[in-house]
Amino acid sequence: MEAKPWESFKDDVLTTAAAVDEGEDPGPDTVSFSDPERIARILTGTRLELLKAVMEEEPESMRALSRLVDRNPKEVNDDVHLFEEYGIISLEQDGRAKRPVVPYDRIEFAVTLELDDSSESDSDERLAVQ
Fold first, then answer.
1. 29, 96, 81: which is closest to 50 by C-alpha?
2. How far is it, in rounded angstroms, from Cα 101 to Cα 113?
3. Residue 99, strand partner residues
4. What is the arrangement of strands in the sheet containing 32-33, beginning at the earlier edge strand?
5. Which of 13, 66, 88, 99 has a 20 to 30 Å separation from 79 between CA atoms?
6. pTM of the entire structure?
7. pLDDT tens digits along 46-99
8. Residue 117 CB-half CA count within 13 A
9. Options 1.10.3810.10, 2.60.40.1120, 1.10.10.10, 2.60.40.420; which CATH number does 44-108 get?
10. CA 26 – CA 123 distance, rounded (Å)
């Protein structure tokens, strides 16, 4: 997941599409937002704990996940469906239960803040924090 300006996102999509057309590997899946605050609203500490529990514990059902994170099943259900909307968690039917699954071994979160193109700055100073 990353937050970046629309033009930068559009350029990345076009570059990825060209790579796919050429038969190249497009690289890792990416979810992008034009507003960094949207990421902050989605990636709360409670939701990150839930995501980590799904990745590490591989719960057999939503109810089992609720017990793992000691949270209300309705709230867990809402959070899992939010992650599902962004392709971070998928739900697999397992009998009568739905099993939450994270189809990735690693998830990275990045936020890029840039000056608008209309700014008068000619420098290309950058800060990377890992």
1. 81
2. 31
3. 92
4. 32-33, 2-3, 110-111
5. 13
6. 0.67
7. 999 999 999 999 999 999 999 999 999 999 999 999 999 988 999 999 899 999
8. 5
9. 1.10.10.10
10. 30
